[in-house]
Amino acid sequence: MKAAILKTLDHRWLPAARSNRARGLWFAGLLAVLAIFLILSVTIGTRDVEWADIAAVLCGVQDNIGQAAVALRIPRTFLALLAGAALGLAGAIMQGVTRNPLADPGILGVNMGASLAVVIGVAWFGMSSAHAYIWTAIGGAGCAAVFVYTIGSLGRGGATPLKLALAGAATSVAFASMVIAVVLPRGDIAGGIHAWQVGGVGGATYERIVPVLPFLAIGFAISLLSARKLNSLALGDELAAGLGEHVAATRAIASLGAILLCGATTAVCGPIGFLGLVVPHLCRNLIGVDHRWLLPFSALGGAVLLLGADILGRIVARPGEIDVGIVTALIGAPFFIWIVRRQRVREL
C-alpha cells in the first residue's frame, strides 16, 4: 500500500514516473560529468600544467612549479567534491523534512547561523583549532535551524513553506548584521573573516579537510538512511503516522544529518548559498520524488555544480579567480526567483 501511494505521489509531481533504467542512465551521465570536472579542476588555473606533472604529483614527486600547482589543486578539488555533495544532500533533506520547495541551508538561515557562531568564537573566545571551528559551526547551524522552524511554526497553519522561507530570510539578514557588528571592532581578524564569509574552496589543504571527514561521514550516513522515512513524510504527517512512522523523530534525525553536513562544510569553506536549493530541484525534475534516488542524485549533482562553479570562477577572472560562493549566488538567485514564480508562493 505504501509503495502504491508513493507511486501515485510521483505521478502527481511529474508528468510521468521515471523508470529505474532512465534514472540509472542519468546517474551514469552525472558520474561522467563529475569525472570530467575532476580532471578540469586539477588542470585549469593560473598556470597551465602538463599531464606529466599530474602523474608525477600522484606518484609523490614535486620538482617544479607546475607540479607544485597540481599539488595545491588536488586538495582543493577534493574539498569542492565533498562540500558540493554535502550541501546538495543537505538541501534535499531540508526540502523533504519541511515539504518546502524553497528550503535551502542558506535561505533557512542555517549556514548563516553556523557562520555567526564561528565568528563569535573567533572574536570573543580566541578560537583557533579546527575541531573547535567544526563543533561551533554545527552548534550554530543546529540553533539556527531550531529557531527558524520555531518562528515559522507560530500562528495559524503551522510551519508553511512561505512562513519558513520568510523566517529563514529574516534570520539570515539578522545574523549577517550581527556578524558585521561582532567583526567591526576587530580589525585584526576582519580581513580573514570577510574572506571566509564569501565562501570558497581556495587554499584547501589536507590538514583542513581531515578533521571534518568524520562529521561529513556521519552526516552522509544519517541523511541517506533517512530516504524511506522521507518518502513517508512526503505523503503528509497524518498518513505517515498511519503507516507507522514516528513523524517527529523522523524529522529530527533527518535534520540532524543535514545540520552535520551544513555545519562541517561551513566550518571549512564558509557559507555557500543556493547550491542546496538549485540541485534538488533539478534532480527532482530528472528522476522524480523518490528520496531513495533523489538523495544520492542530489549529493552527486551538488558535487558537479560546485566543481563546475569553482572551475568557472578560475576561468572568467584569470589570472585571478572568483570564489565559488559568488558564482553559486549568481546562479542561484535567479533560480530562486524562478522557483518562487513557478510555485506561486502565495498559494504554498
Automatic annotation (TrEMBL):
The chain crosses the membrane at residues 24-44, 77-94, 106-126, 132-152, 164-184, 209-227, 248-273, 293-312, 324-341. It comes from the Bacteria. CDD domains: TM_ABC_iron-siderophores_like. InterPro entries: ABC_BtuC-like (IPR037294), ABC_transptr_permease_BtuC (IPR000522). It holds the Pfam family FecCD. It is found in: Cell membrane. One of its GO terms (cellular component) is plasma membrane. Belongs to the binding-protein-dependent transport system permease family. FecCD subfamily. GO terms for biological process: siderophore-iron import into cell. It is a multi-pass membrane protein. Keywords: Cell membrane, Membrane, Transmembrane, Transmembrane helix, Transport. GO terms for molecular function: transmembrane transporter activity. This is Iron ABC transporter permease. The keyword Transferase does not apply.
